[in-house]
Amino acid sequence: MAEGSGEISLGEVEMAFRKFAVHGDTKATGKEMNGKNFVKLCKDCKVIDGKNVTSTDVDIIFSKVKVKSARVITFEQFTQAMGELATKRFKGKSQEEAVQLLYGLIAGKEPTNIGVTKVAKASAVDRLTDTSKYTGSHKERFDESGKGKGREGRADIPDTSGYVSAYKGQGSYDSKVKEDE
Question: How far apart are the C-alpha atoms of 170 and 6, rounded to whole Å?
Answer without folding.
Answer: 93
